[in-house]
Fold this protein.
Amino acid sequence: MALGLVTFLSLSAGAESPQPITQVTEVAVEEVSVSRVRSASFEVDVPAGAFSLFVQIVGNKNLHYYFEKVENPQGRIILGKARAGIENMREDRGENALMALRLSENPKLGPLMAESAAIMIPNRPTVKLVPGRWKFWIKPNEKDFAPHAIHVRSFLKKIQGRVDQNIYGVVPINLHFSGAAGITAETYAKSPYFHVFYNTLKKYLGTGGLVPKIQVVEDVSFPKLIRFNESAEIDRSLIVKTPLKAPDGINLFFTSLKGPKELAGLSFDLPSPLARDGYKGGVIVHVPSEIEDKSPEMLQALFNRAGYVAVHEIGHYLGLLHVCERDSRSFEDGLSDTNCEPHSNIMMYGAAEAPFSIQQRMILFRNPLIPLYRSN
């Protein structure tokens, strides 16, 4: 592991280290049971003044899970068939949970990854988290499975003061190199093209009020070429079998992707469970295993694109949907300050040189993985 090379990528925040203005507390850990005739259910008590609630589940590695229903302390169903559809999201009536709305319409359409699921509430920038007892129901997407236990962990994020333009978040990132394109933990810092990648990453994360902080850089025993299926799902065992020395954070895996369609990057979940309980998630950034055209112009374009893709996929990892979808409006983010104009937002398909919106920034800030600071 080449930890000595991390220095030039580390967060620089002035002479004095700023103190975070957020606090994340684990409020519940439990095992719940699920069967073919009964969904798993659990409750979480939310105190007044909480900024966000993040619930994650880890279950059977061969099953795909989704949140079937969520009821807030006022007894209102904010997730479920009664709340499905983009129209309800745009009405901004409550603490709608990301991704799960489309799953309640048709679970088979959701970008589910095996073994895990997570939900973050609220995702509406103008909505406050309702205090009291929240109720959740979860189940596997598959119909045929044996009764089993699911591990649930819940986290509350609190913030000191109000969120304004002087707030920024720090993104903890771990870099994992498979050796694709000849980049390793020993060589990346000397590569002018990796600098292109990092500068693009830093610039466009910055549009969401985020600053990257590289924690660990290492080579991993990870295939230089990974295949994915029609659902853009990879073999999770590749990750599970990969020994990582990294602390909690967003794992960026640099390797090549190949499948039935072009894919420049992939986030394992939306949003992703925190990196705990031995669960390994992250973001794959596609770089060709072999680069035929090694001209400076081509290499710079390749790693510049990889920077945009990494920012886009980190957005998914932290809880952002696409601004627009090709197949159904029900897949869109439902935010009032995003639109389907080409290249208007980094969360568009194929977007480059595009920022996050103000409302997207608020959603990113709610994720418990991101500590917030107040700038001088």
User: Anything to note?
Assistant: The longest strand covers residues 22-34.
